[in-house]
Amino acid sequence: MAIRRIVKLGEDDVLRKHARRVDKFDRRLGMLLDDMADTMYEADGVGLAAPQVGILKRAVVIDVRDDEDEGGGVGLIELINPEIMEAEGSQMCIEGCLSVPGRRGKVERPEKVRVHAQDRKGRHIELEAEGFLANAVCHEIDHLDGIMYTDKMIEDVTDQIEEAARQRESGEEGEAE
Ligand code: NI
What we know:
Layout: H1 27-42, E1 47-49, E2 59-62, E3 77-88, E4 91-97, E5 100-109, E6 112-118, E7 124-130, H2 131-144, H3 149-152, E8 155-156, H4 158-176
Antiparallel strand pairs: 1-2, 2-3, 3-6, 4-5, 5-8, 6-7
The structure holds nickel (II) ion (NI).
């Protein structure tokens, strides 16, 4: 296993390309998925798509386990050739992306999705996701089609979030004094 370099937006057009379907479920794919999970955890992310490490394959890893109260808590998910079969409802999400460091934006996503995919052995799987997990799944699948969250962004909220964090910090300091 190894940490791979995450491609940043504007650096390389690999993020803007359509990734190819995976048809070989071999050791090489397993190594890619292991590396992607390591890279995601090391960067403190909740999802990573293969194009973000420069590989144009339809493979994503997701782990929203820090958000157990928001529909997560299922651990590491690997989706190969994922397709959204059904989408329901809508939610406003605050998203970030490891390829767009330091930024946050508001994006509208479905509240629930049903996804068909394959696992690393090529077995067909189905995933029902809602809330934050549905959000992560949609964000990662978009990467496979060269779509960044910033393309769908309703509002850039980076400054608002930084301001709120500053206020929280100064509030805490105030209490301690
Ligand atoms: Ni992303």
